[in-house]
Design brief:
CATH superfamily of the largest domain: Impact, N-terminal domain
Shape: elongated
Helix content: 25-40%
Radius of gyration: 23 Å
Number of helices: 5
CATH topology of the largest domain: Ribosomal Protein S5, domain 2
Number of strands: 11
CATH class of the largest domain: Alpha Beta
Strand content: 35-45%
Distance between the termini: 21 Å
Length: 202
């Protein structure tokens, strides 16, 4: 299943009743990477009242992992709404950090939810998103007579042949959309009468 991710880092700022909200979006692929950015902004804005964050790794519809922090704001008023925006707008593999400078006027729980949501939504609005399709790398070992058949099947299942090695048999290294792996493997077995070996490349 293809999904969208953040193409590049984005910065934006919004203001709500004199409070300033600085928003930073970053493409991330792990919790460690996300936390390193959060730490970076804590150091860059040591005098900020709050540094709230939310991240989602992978597809927003089936995330590998996700987390958020209100960083001292009332529970559920910052990190969760930020994560909600990333999920609703389908910004996969991304981190949102919002640095807040308090402007002297309390916003209340509803106001905070709206302000943090708007801050991230505004940044997503100017971000460029890329579509990605998860893929797997596989090796197929087959005899020479059936090489053409495997090439044809790879093409049929939207695969790309990355490398071909000729020895006693032919080894084809293929990049295949993950969703097609099961059908492709079954088809290879059918078409070669079980005389091919398909293995995921580690």
């Amino acid at each position: 299943m293809s999904y969208t991710i953040l193409a590049a880092a984005i910065e934006s700022s919004t203001e709500e009743k004199n409070s300033e909200f600085l928003t930073f979006l970053h493409p991330v692929t792990s919790r460690e990477e996300a936390m390193a950015y959060v730490e970076h902004y804590r150091k860059q804005y040591p005098d900020a009242n709050h540094v709230c964050w939310a991240y989602v790794i992978g597809n927003t519809r089936q995330p590998q992992t996700q987390a958020f922090s209100d960083d001292g704001e009332p529970s559920g008023t910052a990190g969760k709404p930020m994560l909600h925006v990333l999920t609703e707008r389908e910004v996969g593999s991304s981190l949102a950090v919002v640095v807040r400078y308090f402007g002297g006027v309390k916003l209340g729980a509803g106001g905070l939810v709206r302000a943090y949501s708007a801050a991230v939504s505004n940044a997503v609005g100017i971000a460029h998103l890329l579509q990605v399709t998860p893929s797997v790398h596989i090796n197929v070992w087959v005899d020479f007579a059936r090489e053409t058949k495997i090439r044809h099947l790879a093409n049929q299942f939207e695969g790309k042949i990355l490398q071909v090695d000729y020895a006693a048999d032919v080894t084809l290294e293929i990049s295949l959309p993950a969703a097609q792996l099961e059908n492709f493997t079954q088809q290879v077995i059918n078409e070669t009468a079980g005389n091919a070996i398909v293995a995921i490349k580690k």
